[in-house]
Amino acid sequence: MKLIKCRRLIKLPIILGLTTIIVLIVGNYWLTRAIAITPVEDIPEEILRTEIITVGRSPLDGKLLTAAEYAELQAQLQISPPPKLNSQIREQVFLLQIRKTLLQLFPFLNI
Protein backbone atom coordinates (compact mmCIF):
# COMPACT_ATOMS: atom_id res chain seq x y z
CA MET A 1 0.00 0.00 0.00
CA LYS A 2 2.80 2.36 0.88
CA LEU A 3 4.55 1.48 -2.38
CA ILE A 4 1.50 2.54 -4.44
CA LYS A 5 1.24 5.87 -2.60
CA CYS A 6 4.96 6.41 -3.04
CA ARG A 7 4.68 5.85 -6.82
CA ARG A 8 1.76 8.29 -7.01
CA LEU A 9 3.75 10.88 -5.10
CA ILE A 10 6.67 10.45 -7.49
CA LYS A 11 4.50 10.54 -10.64
CA LEU A 12 2.67 13.74 -9.65
CA PRO A 13 5.73 16.06 -9.59
CA ILE A 14 7.05 14.49 -12.79
CA ILE A 15 3.75 15.02 -14.61
CA LEU A 16 3.46 18.58 -13.25
CA GLY A 17 7.04 19.35 -14.25
CA LEU A 18 6.64 17.97 -17.78
CA THR A 19 3.33 19.80 -18.23
CA THR A 20 4.91 23.07 -17.08
CA ILE A 21 7.82 22.65 -19.47
CA ILE A 22 5.51 21.88 -22.40
CA VAL A 23 3.27 24.86 -21.62
CA LEU A 24 6.28 27.17 -21.37
CA ILE A 25 7.78 25.97 -24.64
CA VAL A 26 4.50 26.17 -26.58
CA GLY A 27 3.56 29.49 -24.98
CA ASN A 28 6.95 30.99 -25.77
CA TYR A 29 6.71 29.78 -29.37
CA TRP A 30 3.26 31.30 -29.92
CA LEU A 31 4.19 34.50 -28.10
CA THR A 32 7.22 35.09 -30.30
CA ARG A 33 5.14 34.39 -33.41
CA ALA A 34 2.34 36.73 -32.28
CA ILE A 35 4.51 39.78 -31.55
CA ALA A 36 4.80 41.87 -34.69
CA ILE A 37 8.14 43.61 -34.78
CA THR A 38 8.62 46.18 -37.51
CA PRO A 39 11.54 45.50 -39.81
CA VAL A 40 14.69 47.57 -39.40
CA GLU A 41 14.35 49.10 -42.89
CA ASP A 42 10.82 50.36 -42.12
CA ILE A 43 10.92 54.16 -41.70
CA PRO A 44 8.66 55.53 -38.93
CA GLU A 45 5.61 57.50 -40.03
CA GLU A 46 6.71 60.58 -38.08
CA ILE A 47 9.83 60.84 -40.20
CA LEU A 48 7.96 60.18 -43.44
CA ARG A 49 5.50 63.02 -42.68
CA THR A 50 8.32 65.55 -42.43
CA GLU A 51 10.13 64.30 -45.54
CA ILE A 52 10.03 66.60 -48.56
CA ILE A 53 8.92 64.75 -51.67
CA THR A 54 11.24 65.51 -54.58
CA VAL A 55 9.94 62.99 -57.12
CA GLY A 56 6.48 62.24 -58.40
CA ARG A 57 4.73 60.04 -60.92
CA SER A 58 3.21 61.26 -64.12
CA PRO A 59 -0.60 60.99 -64.10
CA LEU A 60 -0.46 60.13 -67.80
CA ASP A 61 1.95 57.20 -67.99
CA GLY A 62 3.24 56.66 -64.43
CA LYS A 63 6.88 57.55 -65.15
CA LEU A 64 9.01 59.04 -62.38
CA LEU A 65 9.38 62.82 -62.66
CA THR A 66 11.39 65.38 -60.75
CA ALA A 67 9.53 68.10 -58.87
CA ALA A 68 10.17 70.65 -61.68
CA GLU A 69 8.97 68.25 -64.38
CA TYR A 70 5.89 67.38 -62.33
CA ALA A 71 4.98 71.07 -61.83
CA GLU A 72 5.52 71.73 -65.54
CA LEU A 73 3.29 68.79 -66.50
CA GLN A 74 0.54 69.94 -64.11
CA ALA A 75 0.63 73.44 -65.60
CA GLN A 76 0.52 71.99 -69.12
CA LEU A 77 -2.45 69.75 -68.23
CA GLN A 78 -4.39 72.73 -66.85
CA ILE A 79 -3.87 74.63 -70.12
CA SER A 80 -4.68 71.74 -72.45
CA PRO A 81 -6.16 68.62 -70.89
CA PRO A 82 -5.30 65.25 -72.45
CA PRO A 83 -7.48 64.20 -75.38
CA LYS A 84 -10.63 62.26 -74.48
CA LEU A 85 -11.48 58.84 -75.80
CA ASN A 86 -13.90 58.33 -78.62
CA SER A 87 -17.47 58.09 -77.29
CA GLN A 88 -17.91 54.58 -78.75
CA ILE A 89 -14.80 53.34 -76.95
CA ARG A 90 -15.95 54.91 -73.68
CA GLU A 91 -19.34 53.21 -74.11
CA GLN A 92 -17.69 49.83 -74.77
CA VAL A 93 -15.51 50.17 -71.66
CA PHE A 94 -18.57 51.10 -69.59
CA LEU A 95 -20.49 48.06 -70.87
CA LEU A 96 -17.52 45.78 -70.13
CA GLN A 97 -17.36 47.12 -66.57
CA ILE A 98 -21.10 46.46 -66.10
CA ARG A 99 -20.64 42.93 -67.50
CA LYS A 100 -17.73 42.26 -65.14
CA THR A 101 -19.76 43.45 -62.14
CA LEU A 102 -22.76 41.32 -63.13
CA LEU A 103 -20.58 38.24 -63.53
CA GLN A 104 -19.08 38.79 -60.08
CA LEU A 105 -22.54 39.07 -58.53
CA PHE A 106 -24.18 36.34 -60.64
CA PRO A 107 -21.51 33.87 -61.82
CA PHE A 108 -24.10 31.55 -63.34
CA LEU A 109 -25.05 34.11 -66.04
CA ASN A 110 -23.84 33.18 -69.49
CA ILE A 111 -23.12 36.65 -70.88
How would you describe what is shown here?
This protein has 111 residues and is mainly alpha-helical. It has a domain at 87-111. The protein has 4 helices and 2 strands, in the order ααββαα. The protein has helices at 2-34, 45-50, 67-79, 87-105; strands spanning 55-57, 64-66. A hairpin with a 6-residue loop joins strand 1 and strand 2. The mean pLDDT is 79.
Short descriptors:
111 residues, mainly alpha, two-stranded antiparallel sheet, 4 helices
Enumerate how many helices there are, as a single number: 4
* Mean pLDDT over the full residue set: 79
**Strand order of the biggest β-sheet:** 1-2
How far the N terminus sits from the C terminus, by CA atoms, comes to: 83 Å
Q: How much helix is in the residues?
A: 55-70%
Q: How much is the radius of gyration in Å?
A: 33 Å
Class inferred from helices and paired strands: mainly alpha
Count of DSSP strands: 2
Spans of at least 5 consecutive residues with low confidence: none
- Describe the largest sheet: 2 strands, antiparallel
| Portion in beta strands | 5-15%
- How would you describe the shape? elongated
Order of helices and strands: HHEEHH
Task: Sum this structure up briefly.
By secondary structure, the chain is mostly helical. The chain has four helices and two strands, in the order ααββαα.
